[in-house]
Amino acid sequence: MSATWLGIWSLASRELKRFLRQRNRVFGALAQPVLFWALFGGGLDPSFRAAGRSNIGYVEYFFPGTIVLTLLFTAIFTTISIIEDRNAGFLQSVLVAPVGRESIVCGKILGTTILAVGQAILVLALAPLTGIDVSAIELVAGIALLVLMAVGLAGLGFAIAWRMDSTQGFHAIMTAFLMPMWFLSGAFFPAAGLPAWLATLVTINPLTYGLAAFRRVLYLGEPAVTADLPGFGISLLVMITFALSMVTLAMWLARDHNLSKRAA
Question: For the chain, which end, N or C, has fewer CB atoms within 10 Å of the first or last residue's CB respectively?
């Protein structure tokens, strides 16, 4: 058991050190979402009208989605290191180490989650600039939800990267799959009034429920702002299911014998 935890923490701490040493990754995962928030928020705020959401402007509406985007970018930039580790030969060394495949998965997901949530908290500190007052209870509950979303996104990123040979292919998946997940979560525009086919995509998107729960936590005393969102209970259940499913999928892929032989 001690060897398992040592393996998990060794891989997680390696991700933290690698991330902090690569300033371009810090910029991409943290500064880019903030720039999106400032540019889109400032540009669309004059024309934004959100039915059922009181009188909040687009700068305020877009802010929770920006925090989720920070989680997504960090999950992408961190789990892509799996492909780099395979090409550099590091993954082969880990695969023959006396630790289970689960340690590899848990170590990567733990490191990614710590980085993602840490950066999301830094962005959340800007909440007063948007007019959102975050109490201590809202902060604790919000961070718990961010951890849950980060685990699910890290597991999804791991599952995608584990079977890929090139970073170019991973970026293609990001553009075609991961970014639309964020766009269709209610982060960029409200789900109310969408065409039926778009509304269906929003409904089956797990990030929709993670963001809905996060918005409800940030606006605990303002039910009018969250009146058109999925309920907190169903949102929490979906996010727990998503996180557990993605971690399980990542572990199943890591145990794949043929893939292990290919990577080793």
Answer: N
Mind listing the pLDDT tens digit for each residue in 129-174?
Answer: 888 888 899 999 999 999 999 999 999 999 888 888 787 788 788 8
Q: Give me the DSSP letters along the chain.
A: -HHHHHHHHHHHHHHHHHHHH-HHHHIIIIIHHHHHHHHHHHHHGGG---TTSTT--HHHHHHHHHHHHHHHHHHHHHHTHHHHHHHHTHHHHHHTSSS-HHHHHHHHHHHHHHHHHHHHHHHHTTHHHHT----HHHHHHHHHHHHHHHHHHHHHHHHHHHT-S-HHHHHHHIIIIIHHHHIIIIISS-STT--HHHHHHHHH-HHHHHHHHHHHHHTTT-TTTTTTSPPHHHHHHHHHHHHHHHHHHHHHHHT-HHHHHHH-
pTM beyond 0.90: the answer is no
